[in-house]
């Protein structure tokens, strides 16, 4: 709400910072229902004091490529055919393992909102080291730059689509 630095007041700056932190809280709240992927922040421990950052995309790809293969908590398999529906129905009466996303030699990841070039490289490197032989395609609604990521986070109304009308 300020067209030049000459019109900047302390109240306008405070309101802008409050809006930024509200946006960050809204983004964090969007993942509150998740059990495994609910945070990108690791506060550290008594022995390792430093806080660290672990991107959500990295967490998801590591879970998909996990060789120990526990049942994914936040990744859900959707039944697609009659055979899958029968297996899902019988799973109430007997132990039937759901398919794991890492079972398939072809992985498609679609990022709603955008993906950066460094995230695509990170996915490629993780899959190559943890699950060699798996083909991966990363699709996205946008290729993000540092500037466009900040604009999407703070300068636009994310709930109203940009229709250019």
Automatic annotation (TrEMBL):
Species annotation: Haliaeetus albicilla (White-tailed sea-eagle)
Family membership: Belongs to the STXBP/unc-18/SEC1 family.
Xref: InterPro entries: Sec1-like (IPR001619), Sec1-like_dom2 (IPR027482), Sec1-like_sf (IPR036045)
Protein name as it appears in the record: SCFD2 protein
Transmembrane portions of the chain: none
Organism superkingdom: Eukaryota
Biological processes, Gene Ontology terms: protein transport; vesicle-mediated transport
Classification via Pfam families: Sec1 (PF00995)
Keywords in alphabetical order: Protein transport, Transport
């Amino acid at each position: 709400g300020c067209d030049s630095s000459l019109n900047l007041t302390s109240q306008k700056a405070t309101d802008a910072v409050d809006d930024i932190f509200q946006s960050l809280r809204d983004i964090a709240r969007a993942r509150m229902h998740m059990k495994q992927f609910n945070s990108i922040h690791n506060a550290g421990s008594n022995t390792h004091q430093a806080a660290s950052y672990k991107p959500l995309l990295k967490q998801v790809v590591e879970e998909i490529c996990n060789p120990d293969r526990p049942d994914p908590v936040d990744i859900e398999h959707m039944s697609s055919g009659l055979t899958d529906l029968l297996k899902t129905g019988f799973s109430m009466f007997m132990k039937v393992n759901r398919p794991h996303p890492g079972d398939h030699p072809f992985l498609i990841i679609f990022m709603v909102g955008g993906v950066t070039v460094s995230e695509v490289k990170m996915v490629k490197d993780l899959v190559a080291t943890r699950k060699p032989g798996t083909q991966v395609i990363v699709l996205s609604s946008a290729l993000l730059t540092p500037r466009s990521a900040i604009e999407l986070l703070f300068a636009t109304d994310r709930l109203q689509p940009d229709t250019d009308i």
